[in-house]
Each structure stands twice: as C-alpha cells, then as structure tokens.
Predict the structure.
Amino acid sequence: MSALNWDDCRIFLALAREGTLSGAARHLKTGVATVSRRIERMEHGLGLPLFLRTQNGYVLTDQGATMLPRAEAVELAMAEMRQEARDHAQIRGVVRLTSIESLVVPFIVPALAPLLSANPGLDVEIQFSTATINMHRHDADLALRMVRPERGHLRVRQLGTMGFGLYGPPDGPIPRRVVAWPDAMSLGTLLQWTEAFAGPQAPRLAVNTLPGQIEAVRLGIGVAVLPHFLAREAGLRLLENRLPAGGPMQRPILIVTHADLAASRRVVSVADAVSEEILRQRHSLAEP
C-alpha cells in the first residue's frame, strides 16, 4: 500500500461530492484527466475500489463510503491548521504608545488604521502628555518625543525634525499678548523661545493644549510659537521663522523603544507603521 497525501483526499472528496469527473475538475480548477488519473492511482495504492463508474457518473462503493468520513476528518484538520497559521500570523496583544500631542491626529492615527484593520487581535493605547513618560518603569512600550533620554536600556531613532515659528492671526494688527504653555520643565525650550520674542513681562495666555493655542492665535488674542505644519493648516500668519539671535527653532522627533522589546512583533509593527508615516511626511514637518 502506497502512502496517501492531502491531495489524494482532496480529489477523493471532490469526486464524492460532485459525482462526475468534470464537476470535480471544475471544483479543483484542474483537468478531467488529472482527476481520473489521481483516483485510479489512489485506488491502486489502497488496493480498494472507491467508486463505481456508471453512465451518470461516479458513485462511492461500500469501501469508498467507509473512507469518506476519514477523508472529511483530514479535510477538517487541514482547515484548522490553516486557521491556526493565520491566527499566528496576526499580531496580537497591547501596545502602549505615548506621543507628542501634535502628532496624534495627523500622523499616528492614520498610520495605525491599516495595521489595526489587518490585526483585530492588536490593541493600541495612545496617550499624550507634556510631561516625559518614564520608560524605565514601563509606563509605555513606545514613545514619540522631542527630548533624547539620558539613560536606560533604550533604542532611540530620529525620524525627522519638527520646525517651529512665531505665528500671529491671519490678518490685522499683531497682538502684544503671547499665547504659551504653562510653566513646566518638559516645555522649557518652547517657553524660552516664547520669551525670546516677547520678554518675561509680556501679557500671557497659558493654554496646555495645542488646539487651544492655535484657536487663541486665530482669534487675535495673541501670538505663539507653534509647529509649522499645524499653524500652516490653520491659516495663521508666519511672523518669524528664526529666533531674534538668528538660531533656528527646531526639535528632533525621536521614537524610543525598550531594547528588551526589540523582538516583540506587536511593538515593532506599531513602531514601523508610525515611523513610516512620519518619514513620509518629514519635509512638511520641518518646513514653514
């Protein structure tokens, strides 16, 4: 008795269900001669007649009918194996991502849309904060930030540069008031840039969200140091592209991951999706 394989069972099942060589061939997308030859080879290998050849087609013999449930069991096992392989191919688990606020809506969410659609078992938690998340305590698996971490077993990659400028309302007089972030150590650079233009005694409106700052500038309440890509989208007027001393207003966009998560498919897949989107639009992030 020669060994059977899955193709033998597949052809046997197709002929048993279709009842004709042409029907089985159509179902299997192969030729009639191939089906006939494989059935004859299977019968010869088993030493059993599996089908009666009649004028109306092929009918299972008693021996063939006995083989049918076993062949169906093989078919079910193969289907389960394929499903299990698909499940393993999908990315599963939770990835916690912390980000700069300005990148969440225009970059991160669109980048994750196709990834999440293709992997229903993948969950992503996005949070933004002006405070620096402690990666060493595993408060997040992945971070987009503008300050390079000083210590820790972390992998850091610069994806691009975010350019800033001093912006005012779309038209009309330039307000004296400045719109800025509330005092915070993590926002020291942005606050220093703001003071470089307005001085510490200028009237202020402190807002801890970018949409709030942009709206305040749009309404003519004040001027603000803002990312070019957001101010440009809001139709604000660029007043200064460089600091009074001549230096550029730029911050690096860094993606930070734990070195011990470098082999994690879920973390790598999210990091790759976000990185590709930011790299694709890096020029619009940097330029006025």
Remarks:
- The chain is about 45% helix and 20% strand.
- The domain at 93-288 is CATH 3.40.190.290 (D-Maltodextrin-Binding Protein; domain 2).
- The longest strand covers residues 154-168.
- The chain has a mean pLDDT of 88.
